Amino acid sequence: MQDIDLLARSIELCRRCHTICGRVLKHSLQKGGDYLQEARIQALLDCIDTCSYCLDLMSRQSPLHMRACDLCTEACTRCAASCEQLGTDSLLQECARACRDCASVCQQAGSYVA
């Protein structure tokens, strides 16, 4: 994949991950119970924030995006693992997939020099 294609794909998947994590956060607040585990809510918030930050830096091709991508990879990986713990909820499973996709592409994008 060419660097510019990789950057575009990273932006797309970060945006998707950010959106689905926001939906899951709202869903979790509505469901209550196990959905409100502190670690899960923290993972969702961290993922939302790091995706947003990474999106901003990649969109303007900041040379700092590499560091943001590393952080985003870690946050997305943690969020995916947390969402997978409630295995029967299709929205959380969709979120876990989006987080894993984002983590994978951000790991690659972290080495792209803008």
UniProtKB/TrEMBL annotation:
InterPro entries: Csp_YhjQ, YHJQ-like. It comes from the Bacteria. This is Uncharacterized protein DUF326.
